[in-house]
């Protein structure tokens, strides 16, 4: 039997653009009106990925944030083309990657169901056959004639999943959008995917919930930095992911390559202070800037061993502090809530208040929580429903 999906040496490159010189004279600025001063940098989101999927298989694709999972699914769904390599598909593909993907915001719920069915190549009679099931599963019967732009994100998600799962595609691709739904809806979705799998259809499932991946899937693919580093039995792949996370603990990160951004991290160092439940994290940062910046934006994602962002700290930077050209140091304190024993990573990112990101380091440094303060009073957070914002402050700034 031929594979239903073949991925052959697939790579995807993005061009990152950074603004050029730090200081421009008036003459330079006039000249640059007629030429580009951007510096480009190649970033390979996925690189040389190859594997096959047999009909009826359920495959879990796992990895840390930024590993290339969502990019790979967008390529498989034909949303974005690969830079190199090819995809051979022998069946209809339905994908649910982001809330609202594939829907028209001006059309109502009823019209979007029929539009999605026609995109999948289904006839109206086929869609009619499943229409009531879709409406019942999504719980949108009172909103069928309402334009989708008036739906909440949760309603859009329920309708999108119901359409994708009930219109009987041969291949169902699901990204971590289930995190938007509540716990009851997630259970419904996982149960429906189990039914789809037992019905002989193929599923590709990306999730940070390793328990759900292990229960639903038989095979796993582990991505790291855009490459396949493990493939096979799903339990073995999950074990490889957890071991890699634990083995790569470190409390100091130093830049080893030259950055082309106007403002970037040179070193990141952390220290865990106190005891549960009154833990704090001290972060020492060395930043380098090629020009003066005011009102810089600094944030920290704290991520558990399953790859779920459990909290995001955004320390208030004094509006009168300006990042000067050269090297400067920041010392920041984050008050941590009670956490379950686990290995956590810190991903800092740096940018401007106009949403421009200068630098981000995924899983730069790690720390470990070894014991709980009191049974039942920890913060488990096994789904990416959202994250809490702990108190944080700038202790010291030197330049």
From TrEMBL:
InterPro entries: AAA+_ATPase, ABC_transporter-like_ATP-bd, ABC_transpr_TagH-like, Bact_Polysacc_Export_ATP-bd, P-loop_NTPase. GO terms for molecular function: ABC-type transporter activity; ATP binding; ATP hydrolysis activity. One of its GO terms (cellular component) is membrane. Belongs to the ABC transporter superfamily. Coiled coil: none annotated. This is Lipopolysaccharide transport system ATP-binding protein. SUPFAM superfamilies: P-loop containing nucleoside triphosphate hydrolases. It comes from Chryseolinea serpens. Keywords: ATP-binding, Nucleotide-binding, Transport. The lineage of its organism: Bacteria, Pseudomonadati, Bacteroidota, Cytophagia, Cytophagales. SMART domains: AAA. Gene3D superfamilies: P-loop containing nucleotide triphosphate hydrolases. Residues 28-250 form the ABC transporter domain. It comes from the Bacteria. Transmembrane segments: none annotated. CDD domains: ABC_KpsT_Wzt (cd03220). Pfam families: ABC_tran.
